[in-house]
Amino acid sequence: MFKQPESAIAAPKSLSGASRKFACPKLERKGLYMLLGDKELPDEYHWGLLVATDGSSGISFHRSLIGQEWKLIIEHKNLTEASDLLAALKLGVVEDISDKWVQRMKESIRAVRVQGELTCRIWALTALYELANEGFIGMMAEWERIRSIELEAKYLAQDAWVTKRALVARSKWSVP
What we know:
alpha+beta; seven-stranded mixed sheet; DUF6914
C-alpha cells in the first residue's frame, strides 16, 4: 500500500453508499494538487489539477468528455462538497494566487496540447509537465518524474478506495 497519507477524510458517497463531506481537507494554500475522482469502476479515475486558494477549495482544471468532445473546465471547487473525490496529491506550491498569476496559469493550461489519445489522465499529466516546464511550481519538467507522480496518485486513490476514505498526501516530488 501507499505511504501513510498526511490527512484522511470521511468516506465518499460512491464508496460508502451514504452522503459525506470532506471533513478536514487540510489543503495548503497555494498548493498544486493532482485530484483523482471516483468513476465507480475499479482503477478508473477522473484526473484533474487544483490550485488551493484556502484550506478546502481552489481553482480546478480538468478535461471532461461532454457529448463527443473533450472540454476544458476551469472552475472554483469546494472539496467539502466533492462527493467523488478519492485523492489529492500535493505536487508543489505556486508563487502566488493573485488574479494576474492565476490568469497566467489559465493561459498556460489552455495552451496544453496532447499528442495521441486524449483522456483526462493524459491531459492532467501533460498539463502538470507544462506547468513545471514554465516554472509555475519549481519542479523539474521530466517525463520520468511525471510517470512516478502518476503512480503515486494511482496508489493513493487505490488506498482511498480500499479504506473507504478520501486521502490527501504530499508527493515525494513535491517542491516544497
